[in-house]
Amino acid sequence: MKLINLYRVLSIILIPIAMVLGFMDIILLMMGFSANPAILFVAFAIACLVIYAITSIRFLIVVVGGEKNCKKSLKDWIKVNAYGTVFIAGMFLLNAIGSALMSEPNLRVILNELMLQQPEFAAYGNIDLMLSMFRIVTVTMFVISVVTIGHVAITFNLLKKYDHFFAAE
After folding, report:
1. How close are the terminal C-alpha atoms of the chain, in Å?
2. Backbone dihedral region of 125: left (phi > 0), alpha (psi from -120 to 50 degrees) or beta?
3. How far is it, in rounded angstroms, from Cα 115 to Cα 130?
4. C-alpha neighbours within 13 Å on the C-beta side of residue 76
5. What is the dihedral of CA 9, 98, 79, 68, to 10 degrees?
6. How far apart (Å, rounded) are the C-alpha atoms in residues 165 and 144?
7. 71 contact partners, CB below 8 Å, separation of at least 6
8. Distance between CA 92 and CA 44 in Å, rounded?
9. How far is it between the farthest Cα atoms of the chain?
10. How far is CA 8 from the centre of its chain?
């Protein structure tokens, strides 16, 4: 029973994450289609996370909470998008760990170079402000990745447990 309660809490945390990433994904899709097609790969990976969040919430409400039968396609949607979700969450985790392990002098040098190459960043403040914003983004990426990977792991466990609720179409 504790696993289901943890799953509910992680699902509640995942909802606003998916909403924010969904909004960002719309912007990435527009950028990818208009200016830079290479961005589309990241946009589709983030879309996997958003779709996974929606389908896993449906699984939580209908199957786990309501113990009602559901179409097998819901299970397929969850599984397929979970793999893309693990990929993007893994990338977030690797970036967060790499950023956290970077020494502050090296980070200052990189941010100074960024501010010199793109003067519009200099308008937002000094290097200390950029450094603190970078640290906040790093912690946020770490939290998002841990919550998401944990949620996916529990989802696969619960999909096995509640397999009998998925009827053939």
Report:
1. 30
2. left
3. 9
4. 6
5. 0
6. 30
7. 166, 167, 169
8. 15
9. 59
10. 17
Structure-block tokens of residue 43:
């946009």
Using DSSP, state whether 83 is helix, strand or coil: helix
Phi, psi of 103 (to 5 degrees): -70, 155
pLDDT 10s digits, 19-56: 999 999 999 999 888 888 888 998 999 999 999 999 99
pTM of the entire predicted model? 0.86
3-state class percentages of the chain: helix first, strand second, coil last, to nearest 5: 85, 0, 10
Which tens digits make up the pLDDT trace of 149-169?
999 999 999 999 988 888 765
The confidence score (pLDDT) of residue 1 equals 64
Q: Which of 20, 42, 19, 17 shows the shortest CA–CA distance to 29?
A: 42
Among candidates 43, 37, 17, 60, which has minimal Cα distance to 155? 60
Burial class (CB in 10 A: 0-12, 13-18, 19+), 13: middle
